[in-house]
Hints:
Number of helices: 18
Radius of gyration: 22 Å
Shape: globular
Helix content: 55-70%
Amino acid sequence: MISRSFYFAPVVRILGGFLVVLALAMWIPAVVEAVRHAPDWLPITISGAICMMTGAILLLVTGGHSMDLNRRQAFLVAGGSWVVISAFAALPFYVSTHGMSFTDAWFESVSGLTTTGSTVLTRLAEVPRGLLLWRAIIQLIGGVGIVVMGLAILPFLKVGGMQLFQMESSERGEKFMPQIHRMAGAIVGVYLLLTVWCALALLAAGMDVFDAIVHAMTTVSTGGFSNYDDSVGHFRLPAVDWVITLFMLAGAMPFVLFVQFLRTRQLSALGDAQISRFLGLTVIVVAMMTAWLRLVDKVDSMDALRLAAFNVVSILTTTGFSNADYAMWGTLPLVVFFFLTFIGGCTGSTAGGVKIFRFAVLWQVVGGYIRERI
């Protein structure tokens, strides 16, 4: 009976570890607000303390119990972590001086962690910077997947992770790394490295430090949260548009192949079928929209290319940034963009959507069936 009562000990321990990491992340915007002498530093700090104490208690009560994780428990972690972490991530929104209801706070938290990008906040320029930074941080955490991010810390909790990886990851390629924790750690490392590069590039393109950091987090995670109501269009800087376009594309690539490239220094990963299909589709649609803007809306050639590339990539990767009101471009772009929202990026990336790989499989299956009938 006693051993059966602790059947969920591995699940509880993993959730406790997640909450501790979440609390540490929560104190980052608290420090930013404290440095600025803004009033929100205290409620965000208290939120982090609540999260830290809860996580620490969960870790303590599960100490000394078996930490072998079976497939059923992995399902509970993969599903339960999103609910639990979303609830605690909503605390800074709820207790802040901005005055959000818990329903709105929960919505904002879930939208951020799932990198959906929908928001209930308006007049973003008036929102405390700590909350804007917290929105970006939870998108950074959710972009690579809470569970995949957590795999990097499972060795410290003495919990196995192969079943958990199978529940969360869409990667089914060759395991060229011997241990799942090393693979997860390498994916997270590449993810953070891309975020740093993006922030530096945005700084060089003309953004200030705070905006560059926030938009780097929400670009590589393909989440799309911005600090302004008019999104990236607020900056009106072509260099910013091109940098964000490039890193949205990077976020839509399989991160395992980035790791493989860093290990082998070979560009053979670019020959991957889903990458070639994804990039080919992107080029075709960008060319189509560029021609439309140039010939129909009489936009300058370079501006047409920039606007088309930015918005096509943003929609195709499900990021949601915008630098123009493409609803005014005409009927054809709206129809094309509608279908692009369903496609998404590559499997094993931060992008949403059905994923280009599944469309390729569907095409092969349907094509094979038609050929067989003929």
